[in-house]
Recover the amino acids of this structure.
């Protein structure tokens, strides 16, 4: 059976899964549409102001739309966030003070966060970390690659100020956290310390389910606009949403006390952010369908992948485990060669700031670093896992998978 026939067969067998994904899309699309209508989004909200960015009506309405969709008291949507890691760092530094304790619920966070926390990096980086600022830090180790709720319950007491809940798996082989997982985590934490801030790193998870973490007990969430909620057209930035006091403290870290969320010129990006957010449920749907197809295909040709095609999805990421470096490199190079931008470039493993191992990255994306666009990467360490994510169109994912099957099967 050739690659096209294999994909057609898989698509027929995935009709139930695809129907469920499209149902989630339709639910979230209506939710976003209603937020736009409620907040009376109009062309005047696409214009911007200069200088300090005071009295920016579009920025205010944009914050309100995100807050309504994510069921938040307040949201902060800004292009000034350099990355998802920067957005998360503003939440951490904004809400934690010397002597406070931070606990990571799902074991060790992904690589770039370790330098923010202070458990990795060189001496100069560690001097600027949370730990260097007097924040105490602990991790709850995973049990059988899942959340250890017994240890979590023991770890939470009145001394814990914040619990970091990383929804997506990062460069690990644990399962990403479903909304049901996050709800159970938040309930466990609140039963031991009602004042502990449940902070969810929501990167890669927006619009994958019908609910978002704030609806199941989280106090604060954050993510990147060049991932799911940007719909593939937002050029930069991030968002924070949740309880107003925590969002405003995060805003004070992004700007300065006394400015908070009230300043910051948006440089004519309003329309792109509004439009990208409106498109996001459909874009995420295509990315998830592509990930499910990849899971099915790689199972058919004998590779281990996670999550399985019929498992509940928590994010847009698909792991493919190769167990050796060569097929990982071949996988990434094939994706790069079939990218709309820089398709002629050959990815090679290299050291990247924030990562301990060499990483190979494939991503011929319209927005540099965008991971809602079809891309893949993986650290050059055992078990040599490719982390595939994104896809602005399902058909692009199909085309790429056809060629990958020919290369690695």
């Amino acid at each position: 059976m050739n690659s096209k026939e294999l994909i057609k067969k898989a698509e027929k067998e995935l009709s139930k899964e695809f129907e469920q994904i499209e149902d989630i899309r339709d639910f979230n699309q209506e939710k976003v549409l209603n937020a736009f209508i409620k907040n009376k989004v109009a062309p005047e909200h696409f214009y911007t102001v200069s200088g300090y960015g005071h009295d920016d009506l579009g920025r205010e309405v944009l914050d309100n739309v995100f807050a309504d969709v994510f069921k938040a008291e307040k949201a902060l949507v800004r292009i000034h966030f350099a990355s998802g890691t920067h957005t998360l760092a503003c939440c951490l530094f904004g809400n934690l003070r010397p002597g406070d304790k931070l606990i990571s619920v799902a074991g060790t966070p992904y690589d770039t966060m370790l330098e923010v926390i202070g458990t990795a990096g060189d001496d100069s980086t560690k001097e600027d970390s949370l730990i260097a600022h007097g924040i105490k830090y602990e991790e709850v180790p995973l049990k059988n690659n899942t959340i250890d709720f017994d240890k979590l319950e023991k770890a939470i007491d009145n001394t814990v100020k914040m619990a970091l809940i990383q929804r997506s798996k990062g460069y690990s082989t644990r399962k990403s956290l479903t909304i049901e997982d996050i709800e159970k985590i938040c309930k466990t934490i609140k039963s031991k310390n009602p004042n502990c801030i449940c902070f969810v790193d929501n990167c890669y998870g927006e619009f994958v389910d019908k609910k978002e973490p704030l609806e199941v007990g989280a106090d604060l969430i954050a993510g990147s606009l060049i991932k799911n909620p940007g719909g593939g057209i937002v050029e930069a930035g991030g968002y924070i949403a949740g309880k107003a006091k925590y969002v405003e403290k995060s805003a004070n870290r992004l700007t300065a006390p006394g400015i908070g969320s009230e300043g910051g010129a948006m440089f004519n990006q309003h329309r792109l952010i509004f439009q990208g957010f409106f498109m996001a449920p459909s874009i995420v749907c295509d990315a998830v369908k592509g990930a499910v197809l990849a899971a099915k295909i790689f199972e058919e040709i004998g590779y281990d992948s996670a999550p399985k095609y019929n498992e509940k999805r928590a994010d847009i990421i698909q792991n493919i485990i190769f167990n050796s470096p060569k097929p990982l490199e071949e996988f990434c190079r094939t994706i790069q060669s079939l990218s709309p931008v820089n398709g002629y470039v050959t990815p090679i493993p290299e050291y990247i700031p924030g990562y301990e191992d060499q990483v190979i990255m494939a991503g011929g994306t319209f927005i540099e670093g965008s991971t809602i666009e079809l891309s893949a990467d993986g650290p050059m360490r055992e078990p040599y896992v490719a982390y595939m994510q994104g896809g602005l169109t399902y058909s692009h994912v199909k085309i790429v998978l056809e060629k990958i099957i020919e290369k690695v099967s």
About this structure: Residues 270-300 form the longest helix (31 residues). The radius of gyration is 21 Å. The chain has a mean pLDDT of 95. The chain is about 40% helix and 15% strand.
